[in-house]
Design a protein that fits this description.
Elements: H1 7-15, E1 18-27, E2 31-35, E3 41-43, E4 46-50, E5 54-57, E6 70-76, H2 81-89, E7 95-104, E8 114-128, E9 133-141, H3 156-162
Parallel strand pairs: 2-4
Antiparallel strand pairs: 1-2, 1-7, 3-4, 5-6, 6-9, 7-8, 8-9
């Protein structure tokens, strides 16, 4: 189908003389621009550099139903700039946008690249070996936000983030435990099972 494709793009596609490129915009603490072609591509006043950073992008599937689509984006960790950024400032909910670009046979950009996926990072995995270093990011679309729980949790770690040193939730794990008064914890006064505490007469 040719939904939303300009006349210029349709003509180039019909000529069978074109190249394809994927542009990736990573909005972390610093915004990074990469593409998977052999040369840099300028789009929207930003320079999408080529350098073998993009190793793999999982298949992007279109669905008629609303769902929390997710893709895996694998980057080369040859340069530690991105990894240092994510480890220092965090990776959760960082924006990732992927564009599809069409190039003429002379590698010039044809019209405007079209967005094929936009989402936020919800997982990160680092793989190191003697031969290569990989950074894998799990990216979900905006519908994944509907499954998130807003607000705070009743845990000590959550309380410390906002009120360091407050012990209000320090004993939350103890809530709900049964306390038996006057008898040893391992003695059942109804069945007389176990060892009775001192001074208790068993009949």
């Amino acid at each position: 189908m040719s939904r939303g494709l300009s006349t210029a793009i349709k003509n180039v596609l019909a000529s069978n003389k074109f190249n394809l490129a994927v542009l990736v915009k990573l909005q972390f603490n610093t915004t990074y621009y990469y593409n998977n072609s052999y040369q840099s591509i300028t789009y929207d006043s930003n320079n999408y550099i080529s350098g073998g950073i993009i190793m793999d992008i999982a298949d992007i599937r279109e669905d008629a139903k609303i769902n929390t689509g997710q893709i895996n984006l694998t980057l080369s960790n040859a340069s530690t700039t991105i990894l240092t950024d994510l480890l220092t400032y965090g990776h959760i909910d960082k924006s990732v946008t992927i564009f599809f670009a069409l190039l003429n046979d002379d590698s010039t950009l044809v019209d405007t690249p079209f967005e094929i996926f936009a989402g936020a990072v919800n997982g990160m995995k680092i793989s190191e070996s003697a031969g290569e270093s990989k950074l894998s990011l799990s990216v979900s679309n905006h519908w994944a936000l509907l499954n998130q729980f807003a607000g705070r949790t009743l845990t000590d770690s959550s309380q410390q983030r906002f009120f360091n040193g407050d012990l209000s939730f320090d004993f939350v794990p103890q809530v709900g435990k049964e306390i038996v008064w006057g008898t040893a914890p391992d003695y059942d006064s109804r069945t007389h099972q176990g060892v009775p505490p001192p001074g208790v007469m068993v009949r």
